[in-house]
Amino acid sequence: MSATVVNDLGVIVAVTAGLGLLVALLGVGVMWRLRTRSIAMMLGVVMVVSIVATLAGVVAITLKMIIDGSVRDIVLSVVVVGGLVGLGVAFVLARRVVGESRRLVAAVRDLPFVAPRGLPAELQTIANTLQEANARERALEGARRELVAWVSHDLRTPLAGMRAMAEALEDGVVADPETVGRYHAQIKLEVERLSAMVDDLFELSRIHAGALRLSRTRIGLADLVADTLAGAEPLARAKGVRLTADATEAVPVEADAGALGRALGNLVVNAIRHTPSDRTVVLRAAVDAGMACLSVSDSCGGIPDDDLSRVFDVAFRGEAARTPTKDGGAGLGLAIAQGIVEAHDGMIDVVNDGPGCRFEIRLPLVGGPVG
């Protein structure tokens, strides 16, 4: 290759690179100024920058040194036509993107939101994500309405009874000491139930708000099972239900003993409430598949398959064998247990097993001795 040709190639590269860099910088500046405007305008700028950079280089070299006469005019004509074709394609693409974007916006404004089909891949991903988020929001809103309905129902009945008893005491309708003492005891019992319900609502709101603070230490699940058993024994004795435990194996975990104890206690209380008299509730702690496993098995008669996926929903109390009794709560215990377990990076599930169902808590296992 001769020195002249090499020199010409060097000039061509230098001129085209310089012009391309200048056009690119101008394009970036325009894009920055239009960063909050329509996607169509930004796409147009991108296409114009690409075409202008190419045209500038070709035209500069053509006019400067390589082609003369009618051949130059032909080349320039071809380049101009190519540029116009590119701009036309950019315009069509921009209109397509803007049209699909407007279709997505119209679908978002039309509730309930259903993701439109046939969108470009990125917009289709956004639409599908929005549809999933909208479905979750509707489910949460339904759960909130259900919670308000359940809590309103559970508050109205004891409050009405307390008001009637208080008015009877105030008006002197009830005067004999035995009845007065019974009314006072019943009012105290209802206040304790309402106080427990308020505590549950507060705890659930902290869980949903992500404000649950855990003080984790290394504990053994056998000790947790023993403490839970001792706390639930009076309720089980009053109901005529037997409580047994199988937790001889050392199972160390990193957990907040108070919070995890509340979750396990909620499961045990739930099992006792739905287990008939003279039946057994069994607590187990073991290592299963490399995870620490806590389980509570009852004799409730089982949960309908359609209800298994809703057991941990807020305010859900079920039907048939799970129909709430007079000592039932507001349906918050299992939802609170789920929130506490998930805050410990664990999992909670329920399956039908034998004469009842089995609730399982799985937590990351920690090696080493329990301190």
Relevant terms:
371 residues, alpha+beta, 5-stranded mixed sheet, two-stranded antiparallel ribbon, 7 strands
Could you describe the 3D structure shown?
The protein has 371 residues and is an alpha+beta fold. It is built from eight helices and seven strands. A five-stranded mixed β-sheet has the order 2-4-5-7-6. A two-stranded antiparallel ribbon has the order 1-3. It is elongated and about 120 Å long.
* Extended strand count: 7
Helix-strand makeup class: alpha+beta
What is the H/E string? Answer: HHHHHEHEEHEEHEE
Overall helicity: 55-70%
Gyration radius, in Å? 36 Å
Largest pleated sheet: 5 strands, mixed
Shape: elongated
Strand order of the largest sheet: 2-4-5-7-6
End-to-end distance: 82 Å
Range of strand content: 5-15%
